[in-house]
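Z., the sequence and structure:
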Amino acid sequence: MRKPTFDFDFSPGKVGDFLNHIDRTLPLTHEDNVVWLSEDCYWISYSDWTYIIDVDWYPSMNPEGSFTVRLVDNPKGSPDDEDWVSPYDKPLLQRECRTLEELEVILKEFHEEVLKKLAE
């Protein structure tokens, strides 16, 4: 089992992590790493997909790209539901960055925002 990309507890979120394949001894945009830089490379879902922190690398597998991080509110439930409507066109928050260090800071900020919303 691979070590998680970030040493942070995103509970009660459930993490999907393809960035854990990144070799941190190499630059992020090294050819061995760039294959893991794609859409849906990292996500955290909360409360049965009610809130989602979604991380994509655009353009996919391009070393000139960047991470796009979105916090979306999906009150309709799971993407597997028949009536699911994509909330990605109007995210609650959206930021961009180019490093894993910046990404970790953004993920922690967005996680705190989700915790506030879940407590409401």
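The chain has a mean pLDDT of 90. The first helix runs from residue 31 to 34.

Let me know what you think.
H.
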